[in-house]
Design goal:
Chain lengths: 287, 272
């Protein structure tokens, strides 16, 4: 920063940040304000300047929409729990066991991120469907016939677990990589058991990454829209589906906006609460 | 069991579990590829009649060409714009110390920690309020809101490992700001920029929830596939799904190779 004095005010930091901040103001903050405004408009209107009313919110609390809300939150919670248990051993392996193979494995786990979720979910449909890969093989080779478990609520959760796996895995791996080897070795040298090292050293020190993984998966799972439709066959109606219906078939934008605002409140509160506690510089590897 | 043997057993378990999950991850992709090679109207396993008929039909369809064109066009523009904004965004994120940086860092994360379907709808509403007609252009804008923050994070990780004294040394040797940017900052950060390009292109290429609400009459590959798959089995769907998977793999491996090459040539020159 030796030259800062010779540069014009404002400094290089704010100037470099400016394009991104402008983009987010126009493309993120403004739309959210618009949706907030819409949620107070009379039902079935398409303008931002009507007489403000609370009618949409009243409608939501009197209807069964809150059920969709609870479903979405419950599905997201199950997804996070299952993924935490699934990903921890893999993350641990990527950091401490696999050595040079870790790069290859990371690449393998990255690729699915770039294929849209509905394509991959459709692969599962063809796998599980009647006469599909699984049931067809069982029938032909073993002579056993089962009913397909597609289009059930458990298939929806399965789809979410599948789609959001990388979003748990990568932050968790970053978190585990933050635990210095020396600290672990020191704990072992002082006579700690494996379990003690895990509970008192590994877990607390890798917590930032783990919590970010939880948060990211939860938020994405709450916003999931394709899983329930493609795999779940609408056995469950998540809140995102209600919102989509309000905006499309029902043509009731203010109602959809009010539902979105409620969802944003839950997610926003959670995100701000968690992010406030962490220093991003340490997590992302500033030295 | 002695500690060393127990350690080996645990490692073997971890390895087995990881490989099982890799198989799990690729199972649907493999199923799609299998289905695309079926010549019959409906997919059934074991496959009765193999063939490339649906591949031929898909590639001869003008509609599919248009879809691919729209998807590639959107992804390419998103990539160029994202990386330009994210490059500077990452410098502000990770390189400079300035008042408001910590708030800025959180602001950048917000769109990532946000349900994408809701973001898509919010943007739809916003475009409508502004009186904009929906087309692939509005979809580009929608993708940017989500892709630029991701690209910023990806490039930031490279910026964190960047030694600022390199720039200062160049300044002290009398380089202008433009020269420092071109001769020092850009080359050192190049691997991060290439990763940023890869992420931007591919995330846009595979995006569904944002496109769904913001493309208007235009359609991208994921949207088309979705529209087809909710109404029943269409033989072209596995073909196009396989194409989009293979496309992503090829681009990712190519880009990864490029990054390795850049690292190697940089190490040879001994600049870092």
């Amino acid at each position: 920063m030796a030259r800062r004095g010779s540069w014009a005010i404002p400094g290089p930091g704010p100037r470099a940040a400016l394009p991104l901040v402008l983009l987010l103001l126009v493309g993120f903050a403004a739309p959210l304000l618009a949706i907030l405004d819409y949620s107070f408009m009379p039902p079935r209107t398409f303008s931002l300047t009507g007489e403000p009313t609370l009618e949409n919110y009243v409608t939501i609390f009197q209807s069964t929409s809150y059920l969709s809300f609870l479903w979405s939150l419950a599905l997201a919670t199950v997804t996070v729990a299952v993924l935490a248990l699934t990903c921890y051993p893999i993350s641990y392996g990527l950091v401490r066991v696999f050595g040079r193979w870790a790069t290859v494995l990371t690449l393998l786990f990255t690729i699915p991120l770039f294929v849209s979720e509905n394509v991959r979910l459709y692969g599962w449909v063809l796998f599980f469907i009647k006469n599909g890969v699984l049931l067809g093989a069982l029938k032909t080779y073993l002579g056993i016939e089962f009913d397909s478990w597609l289009f059930t609520s458990s298939a929806t959760v399965f789809g979410m677990i599948y789609v959001y796996l990388p979003f748990m895995l990568f932050p968790m791996t970053l978190g585990i990589a933050m635990v210095p080897n020396e600290t672990r070795d020191a704990a072992f040298d002082l006579g700690a058991s494996r379990w003690q090292v895990f509970r008192e050293v590994e877990l607390p020190l890798s917590m930032p990454g783990i919590v970010i993984g939880f948060l990211l998966t939860f938020v994405l799972a709450v916003g999931a829209i394709a899983e329930a439709k493609v795999l779940g066959g609408q056995a469950i109606i998540p809140v995102t589906h209600d919102i989509e219906i309000a905006f499309t078939y029902a043509q009731n934008w203010p109602l959809g906006a009010a539902l979105s605002v409620l969802l944003m409140l839950v997610v926003g509160a959670l995100v701000l609460l968690v992010l406030r506690r962490f220093d991003l510089d340490t997590i992302l590897g500033r030295r | 069991m002695n500690p060393a043997r127990r350690r080996r057993a645990v490692h073997a378990l971890i390895t087995a579990w990881t490989l099982a999950v890799v198989v799990f991850i690729y199972l649907p992709g493999a199923t799609l590829a299998l289905a695309s090679l079926t010549s019959t109207r409906y997919f059934g396993f074991p496959i009765v009649k193999w063939g490339l008929d649906w591949w031929r039909k898909t590639f001869n369809s003008i509609e599919i060409h248009q879809l691919l064109e729209v998807s590639v066009k959107i992804a390419f523009i998103v990539m160029v714009v994202s990386v330009a904004i994210a490059f500077f965004g990452a410098l502000a994120f990770a390189r400079y110390d300035w008042r408001g940086r910590s708030i800025y860092q959180k602001l950048v994360l917000l769109p990532i920690f946000f349900p994408q379907s809701v973001l898509g709808l919010a943007l739809l509403l916003w475009f409508n309020t502004l009186g904009l007609d929906l087309s692939w252009k509005t979809a580009v804008f929608a993708h940017l809101i989500w892709v630029v923050p991701v690209a910023t994070l990806v490039i930031s990780i490279q910026v964190y490992s960047f030694d600022p004294t390199l720039e200062e040394a160049a300044f002290d040797l009398g380089a202008t700001r433009w020269q420092v940017l071109r001769e020092v900052t850009l080359p050192v950060l190049l691997p991060g920029i290439v990763s940023g390009c890869l992420f931007s292109f591919l995330l846009s290429w595979g995006n569904f929830p944002l496109s769904l609400f913001t493309t208007g009459a235009d359609s991208t590959v994921p949207e088309y596939l979705y529209a087809k798959m909710v109404v029943g089995y269409t033989p072209g769907v596995p073909v196009l799904g396989t194409v989009s998977t293979i496309g992503a793999v090829v681009i990712l491996l190519g880009g990864y190779g490029l990054i390795l090459m850049l690292r190697r040539s940089r190490d040879r020159r001994g600049t870092l």
